[in-house]
Design goal:
Blueprint lengths: L28 E5 L4 H4 L13 H20 L7 E4 L3 H12 L7 E3 L16 H8 L1 H9 L15 H10 L2 H6 L7 H20 L4 E5 L1 H12 L3 H5 L9 E3 L1 E3 L5 E3 L5 E2 L2 H13 L4
Parallel strand pairs: 1-4, 2-3, 2-4
Antiparallel strand pairs: 1-5, 5-8, 6-7
Length: 284
């Protein structure tokens, strides 16, 4: 579950006095994990593999689109200026479905830093097989710890060619900035830092954004948005197809501060059920 909301911030800037130029209200950030993929449906480690949405995933994307479009009608600040998506098709397909339902529709930008965590040697392996072969303690350390990396993807691994194909389709900067063998969640946080800096700057100018990513890229982004400690992110799960709204205030140092730590889901009941199901299956 997302971390508990923080208490009211005492350092929020007061309203500008006469003669000062008011700053725009910060934009709204909406985070959305793609709809269920075909590999989510069969509980396999996906990582950088480019697998499509399942039928249920398409339905989840359409539901997310309807939720956000309806919310934007009532609260125009929720209508994103841009939609930013991971290039992997399960995310970009979700982003296209949602963007088409929004006013405009807004332009869709691709950001390689949002790709899913590289699961190394676990790529394309059923989770139960990894659990059996590595044991319960190691399985959970690989899955939920902040700094622990799965074993590296060897050159002769059956998934190597598919992962290499994805890497070849990414821009040169991605191949330079992504570990090609395996990643910890901490590695994903580091590759997302420049993206969060640019996103924060856009939000500070009053521009609302929708970001469509993956379970672990959005967990990593939440580390930066909420300044989460490793033990906090270990318990953070991200359900598929549930728009998460992040609003901000400006503190006395002109920095953006989350209004509600962890954010709020547009469909609170639906997200609660999805999170409970996700937790029962071992989390994101």
């Amino acid at each position: 579950m997302p971390p508990a909301p923080a208490g009211p911030a005492s350092s929020v800037s007061p309203r500008p006095t006469h003669g000062t130029r008011p700053h725009p209200s910060p934009g709204v950030l909406v985070l959305l994990r793609h709809g269920q993929s075909t590999y989510n449906a069969v509980d396999r480690f996906t990582g950088l593999l480019d697998v499509p949405l399942s039928d249920r995933g398409v339905a989840e994307a359409r539901h997310a689109a309807a939720l956000l479009a309806r919310a934007a009608e009532q609260h125009p600040e929720l209508a994103p200026r841009r939609v930013v998506t991971s290039p992997l098709v399960r995310a970009s397909g979700t982003a296209a479905i949602v963007a088409a339902a929004l006013p405009g529709p807004p332009p869709l930008d691709v950001e390689w830093r949002l790709v899913e965590r590289h699961y190394g040697a676990f790529t394309d392996t059923p989770r139960e097989i990894v659990r059996r072969d590595h044991g319960e303690e190691a399985y959970w350390r690989y899955r939920r710890s902040f700094a622990h990396r799965p074993p590296a993807l060897a050159p002769d691994h059956p998934a190597r060619a598919a992962v290499d194909d994805v890497l070849l389709r990414l821009p040169d900067a991605a191949r330079a900035g992504l570990r090609a063998d395996t990643e910890s969640l901490a590695d994903v946080v580091e590759r997302l830092r420049p993206f969060w800096a640019a996103t924060e700057a856009a939000l500070a100018l009053g521009r609302s954004l929708l970001v469509v990513g993956h379970g672990n890229s959005l967990r990593a982004l939440s580390v930066l948005v909420d300044d989460l400690a490793p033990e906090e992110v270990a318990d953070l799960n991200v359900p598929t197809g549930q728009p998460l709204v992040r609003r901000f205030v400006v503190d006395s140092g002109s920095r953006l501060v989350p209004l509600v730590r962890g954010g709020t889901y547009l469909d609170a009941d639906g997200a609660e059920h999805a999170l409970a199901d996700l937790q029962a299956r071992g989390g994101t």
